[in-house]
# Entry
Amino acid sequence: MRIVYIYGSDYYLLTMKIAQVLHYDGKQAVIRMDGLSKLKSRAYDMNGNQVGTLVRIFGPVSRPFGLVSLKGSLNSDKLEIRERWK
# Structure
């Protein structure tokens, strides 16, 4: 999904991708993404609360894995990865 935000003369394109949580150990979560995302993209739970940041991408390009550094506990088996482009 892509959303365009316009602030004065600036505009931002926000892309969102759903990711499946495969493993969670308290401080980090391994996720499976539908496509590539930018490093340092923010990860949100399905309630819209920011839970962490995407810090590593590995695996096949078509359906990569990602490592999310978590801020706190995780209570969802799906995450939303949001990228902001200017």
Q: What stands out?
A: The beta strands are 2-7, 10-24, 28-33, 42-44, 50-58, 65-70, 78-85. The mean pLDDT is 84. The radius of gyration is 13 Å.
